Amino acid sequence: MKSPEILVVSNNADTISTVKAVLEKDFRLAFTTPALVMEDIKKFHNLSGVLFELKGEKIEVVEQFTRLFLTYPRLKFLVLSSKEFYNSIDKEKRFGFWCLECNTLEAFREEVKQIEKYPVSTIEKIYLVDAAFARSPFAIAIIPNDDLNVALINRKHDEIIGYNKQEYAALGLNKNTHPDDVKREIEAEQLMKNLGENSFSIEKRIIKKDRTIAWVEQFTAIQKNENNGGFARIVITWDITNRKKIEEKLQESDRIKTSLLQNLQGMVFRCKGDPKWTMEFMSEGVIELTGYAPTDLINNHIIAYGDIIVRKYRPQLRREFKEAIKHKKQIRTEYEIIMKDGTTKWVFENAQAIYDEQGNFLAIEGLVIDIDHIKKIEKQLIYFQNFDQKLHIPNREFLTSKIQEKLDRNNFQGTLILVNLKESQKLYRSHGYQYVELLTTSLVSKLKQLETDKITLHYAEEDLYVYYAKYKMTKEEIRTFYAGLRRAIARTIIREQIRCGVGVIHLHRKINIAEVYLQKARVASEFIVHENRIMAIYLYDDDMDKVVQREDYLRKELLDVSFEPGHEDKLRLVFQPIFNLQTGAVSGFEALARFTSDKYGPISPLEFIPIVENNRIIMPFGKKIIDLAIQFIKDLSALGIDNCPVSINISVSQLLDTNFAGDFFLRIESAGISPSLINVEVTETIFSTNHEQLNEALTELNEYGIETAIDDFGTGFSSLERLEKLHFTTVKMDRIFVETIDNKEKKACIVPEIINICKKFNIKSLAEGIETEEQYNTLKFLGCDFGQGYYMSRPLEVKDAKAFIIKSRKAK
Questions:
Q1: What stretch of H or E contains 235?
Q2: Which CATH architecture describes the domain 1-136?
Q3: Residue 7 near residue 50 (C-beta atoms within 8 A)
Q4: If DSSP codes are grouped into helix, strand and coil, which group holds residue 682?
Q5: 3-class DSSP assignment, residue 315
């Protein structure tokens, strides 16, 4: 029959020797250290128990004991403690503890023989841990599933945290963290999860119950319980307020490195300071740090410490050490070492030369700690800072810093090509977020195909992408590159009907700020001359700035008109009569906005309406238009004309705004006019919008009594088949179809087709842009219901429009 197997966890050679002498005959013994126990215990499957030496209450030992305890809840423990610690434990709680100094070795052997019979209930386990942690010099909390009500908290916790257990449970986990440190704490835990680790450390301030502020360092580990799916949060906290005060007095500049130096595990050493860094002493931490035992490195027995430093760092380190010894300076440096298994690791060294009483150099003493995980975090943070996380391409900050470095060296060789796909944002409304995100990913994938070793793609901002060429591209190279760009994305942007402007600018001596180049490249990309082109490229020139300055000035004026009182005179409506083509009578008016700039005079709607829409002031601006139209209707009513509806143009964004209809109806009701006196016209770009949303909005207007018309029908996205699915009451044919009536082109056949389809679907037809008698008569003959145009009347000012309708009604 096999002897029981016992795992002994200790760093103490005397303890190991004693245990061997007493137990070796009766037990199969295995030995490990607290640092390696979590890995080594996996090798054993039939342990009778664990002897865990817990002396001195070092934080790393307590941490490993806690991990072992929580990970293997059914293990039988006998904790070997110091005499002082053992005697401090209440007698009823000494179960599971043993002091070799307080008892005979024979009694110890008998105690170990009973280890298999130890109970493993939760109560006994909690007593065991409670006793182990009661006299720890730091605060310890073991919190199952983050429930503070059932947490195990030691006595020191009350002193350091400043609340007793009940008060802290009522307050909430980490709720006493100083407000300025809350964000860092959340980010640290999130980073731990992102990196797939199970622990993190943080220095922070806490606010105690008496409102005093203390600095603490807090180690948090999340230990999952594979048996029940739960977890335990292990929080070890120690007060570093005094140390912080010392740091402040010394004006310590490198706080993070100091914190690592004083608190993280590492290797304490003493070396001769020779070119090989010959070691005279090394602590046990060298094993975890390098993989080598102290005896391997001391006196260069197996290998010199200098030889495990990565070669490229050695010359600089030797210079630093020589300078530090000469001038009696502290050595603080980072470098990489080659571990025993061949991998590399970043370490931080803090050392100081020591001298005898006569000032003669003796040796260098210091501490080397592992900062490999810090370097990984730094690397990841650099990636986060310089790359877009969704598209995985360099971002604007990375690009501008790279260009700025070049400009600062008076190097002006380079070309920027900015691809502007801002129109894709309109697809969010019609297709949804997920569709647009997938489309963006697809487009970026196509854009990346054009990258070379000298031309790289960058993310400037949403839907703006910049190619950066490290040299000045020739016209022919730009032409060839643009052709490739068209081949890459033209099919997609044509399918989605999103225009793409491409702006080009070369680096030159007149501009030495990187960000300015991006701004001007964007200006060029937005300099769309040919509105019907789906894609165009422009090379930046100074004349473009004048256009931008004009647009910026108009934008400010339009903002004033939309929001500020006292600018009403800049915006007015003119009214073009709409005629019943079958009777010749005036059936209503279309209200057309007119804007006059203080600086530039009258501005075409084709210029100011896009500015209003692109700057997202269409809602307040549109309300001004509605109010002016309602006032005109009230003026007509005062003249006794109560059956002359006015049509106003509404944008897609207005129509689909959730507050639009309610606000619109309120204005109509407040004015005391009938909803039937207002018609709404929406441009046919509405066809690119989600049909379900569109119909809901149209139905709401129709049910309220407002007729709706589709404006400029036939110029873009529309099709006759879609009319049946949408709840419009009127279709306005664009003037380009009316113009063909005179010259008898083949397009003229579209007009009767549109009229017939309207009759089929019981929709009214209206032709705009009627300028000749022939057009008028032809449309009347074809059965078109309504029409407007210069042949009948130009748009009229308010006064003239009133006179026109009065005269028209009298003639009738």
A1: strand 231-239
A2: 3-Layer(aba) Sandwich (3.40)
A3: yes
A4: strand
A5: helix
Between CA 392 and CA 380 the distance in angstroms is: 13
pLDDT, residue 110, reads: 82
Q: How many residues does the chain have?
A: 812
List Cβ neighbours of 151 (8 Å cut-off, separation of 6 or more). 141, 142, 143, 144, 165, 169
Query: What is the pTM assigned to this prediction?
Result: 0.48
Domain 140-246: homologous superfamily in CATH: PAS domain (3.30.450.20)
Instruction: Note the pLDDT of residue 119.
Output: 60
DSSP for residue 1: -
Instruction: Give the separation between CA 33 and CA 61, rounded to whole angstroms.
Output: 9
User: Residue 514 corresponds to which amino acid?
Assistant: A
Nearest 5°: phi and psi at 510? -70, -25
Instruction: Report the range of poorest mean pLDDT among 51-65, 219-233, 737-751.
Output: 737-751
Q: Where in the chain is the domain with CATH 3.20.20.450?
A: 565-811
269 alpha carbon, distance to own chain's centre: 44
* Interatomic CA distance for residues 328 and 352, integer angstroms: 8
What secondary structure letter does DSSP report for 298? B
CATH 3.30.70.270 range(s) for the chain read: 392-541
CATH topology of domain 392-541: Alpha-Beta Plaits (3.30.70)
**Each residue of 707-738: b (16+ CB within 10 Å) or e?**
bbbbbbbbbeebebeebeebbbbbbbbbbebb
- Distance, CA of 101 to CA of 190 (rounded, Å): 46
Please provide the DSSP assignment of 517-569 as one string. Answer: HHHHHHHHHT----TT-SEEEEE--THHHHHHHHHHHHHHHHHHHHH-TT-GG
**β-sheet bridge partners, residue 138:** none
CATH fold of the domain at 565-811: TIM Barrel (3.20.20)
Torsion sign, CA atoms 475, 481, 484, 485:
negative
pLDDT digits (tens, 9 = 90+) for 472-525: 999 999 999 999 999 999 999 888 888 899 999 999 988 889 999 998 898 888
Other C-beta atoms lying within 10 Å of the C-beta of residue 154: 24
Find tokens 């807090």 and name the residue: 218
pLDDT in tens, 215-231: 999 888 887 766 667 78
Going by C-alpha positions, the residue among 83, 80, 79 that lies closest to residue 102 is 83
Higher pLDDT, 248 or 478: 478
- Rounded distance, CA 804 to CA 798, Å? 10
Nearest partner of 562 among 632, 646, 625, judged by Cα: 625
Gap between the Cα atoms of 718 and 722, Å rounded: 7
Give the per-residue pLDDT at 704: 94
Quickly list H helices, 254-395: 255-263, 285-290, 294-297, 305-308, 314-327, 372-386
8 A C-beta contact, residue 73 and residue 225: yes
Contact 15, 100 (CB under 8 A): yes
Contact 521, 540 (CB under 8 A): yes
State the Cα–Cα distance between residues 628 and 635, nearest whole angstrom: 11
Cα dihedral 680/684/686/687 (nearest 10): 140
Query: CA distances (Å), 352 to each of 153, 244, 271, 317, 332, in order?
Result: 39, 21, 11, 14, 9
The mean of the pLDDT values for the chain is 85
d(CA 85, CA 251): 39
Q: CATH 3.30.450.20: which residues of the chain?
A: 140-246, 255-377
Query: How many helices and strands, by DSSP H and E, does the chain display?
Result: 32, 29
| 255-377: CATH topology | Beta-Lactamase (3.30.450)
CATH 3.40.50.2300 residue spans of the chain = 1-136
Name the range with the highest mean pLDDT among 106-110, 505-509, 733-737, 751-755.
Answer: 505-509
Cα separation, 260 vs 214, whole angstroms:
19
Phi-psi region of 282 (alpha: psi -120 to 50; beta: other; left: phi over 0): beta
Structure tokens given for 547: 């256009």
> What percent of the chain has a predicted confidence (pLDDT) above 70?
89
